[in-house]
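Checked the freezer inventory, then went back to the computational side. Two predictions to log before the end of the day. The first one is the construct we discussed on Monday; recording sequence and tokens without edits.
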Amino acid sequence: MNRIFRGVLYVSSILLLILVVWAAYTKGTKNEKETSGVAREETIVEETEAALEETEPDTEPEVSESTKTTLVFTGDILIGNSVSANYDAGGIDVILSEDMQNVLRNADITMVNEEFPFSERGTQMEDKQYTFRINPSYVSALDEMGVDIVSLANNHVLDYGTEALSDTFTTLDQAGILYAGAGESKERAEELKIIEVNGKKYGFLAASRVLPVAS
């Protein structure tokens, strides 16, 4: 009986030892697989980062001078009495500094807000403190400034009514200067004016909340 008991105990001990060894082996294999998987993931990440570094430039791509486009937008332009007198006396150099002329002329596109109509016609708007109207000959000043396009959507372009405004369209057209924000029709006033420079197109719109009073 004791021999049988010892035999059973001996066999149980061997089985337990086998289970312990098997569990240790299984755990070790699992750890190796997990470690291997992590190492593989790290390798993939490193390879991906290396590939990205090869495709990304070390520095920003240089933009050649021929592809750069410079746009200049000014505020209100008004050729008042003092400005026109100085212009008559000494030309554009008297009313604009050389540095300012260079900024305006060297820009690919220069846009100004023309705060007046070019005309000698029309009826002055009543009950308005300041009204402007400029002789069309002074459009040469805008040309010498390098102006490419003007906004006519402002509160002074109708100071002398639609006749003066119509003269403004004619004056600008003859000078080759584009205009946005006004026109002989609503469609023309809303028209997008496009200027193409260096292979790119730039669109210009102008709008104002000032509307003429219906007669």
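The second is the one RB wanted added to the comparison set:
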Amino acid sequence: VAAVTFIFVVVATPPTLYWAFGVYALLVLVLVLAARLPLLTFAKRMLIEVPFVIFALFIPIVGTGPRVEVLGLSLSEAGLISCWNILAKGTLGVSISVLLASTTTARDLLSGLERLKVPNLLVQIAGFMLRYVYVVRDDVERMRIARESRGFHVKGPAQWKVLAQAGAALFVRSYERGERVHLAMLSRGYNGSIPNAAPVALHTRDWLIALMFPLSALAALLTALATRA
């Protein structure tokens, strides 16, 4: 709840309130240090946003409207603001998501979603995906080793047919495994819900500590808006 609320505050911030984004980044840094998450590990996991960064950097070049010279390049003013908007909000959103995923186990995340009354079917789908994504990954690795042991190497479009056939075989194998797992669950009394361990009791103090983070961000946003007005 705190992470999602923080993301909503970030998204609602006008891109020209630059110092507010600085406060948000400082809050995230404080959380990273409080969680004792190594900064190098955190930085490596942030690399997932690189494609979005590359896309954002092209916006000032192809943007329209008044232009300014930056390092010898003619860039769109509106494009620069849009680029900053995407980079700042995207980076903050990814950073809080990485922080949440790095400090909370998948089982606890699913349990939290269930307690927040997310539809049970969606929670179960996410749970099965987390359980079997590693199984499918191992299948892909075994298929790759089998192909290479037979002298197969991807060198161009001529080999795409083999990769497509391997993908189709993987899909069929995964589908059949899903059918077998479902039948096994039904034979063991599955009735549409998976029993979980007793959820951890959350007290008012826990909620207050968690919400201090997004409420601090909200206070920074309101202060920035009042100062601009």
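For RB: The mean pLDDT is 85. The two ends are 30 Å apart (CA to CA). Let me know if you want it refolded.
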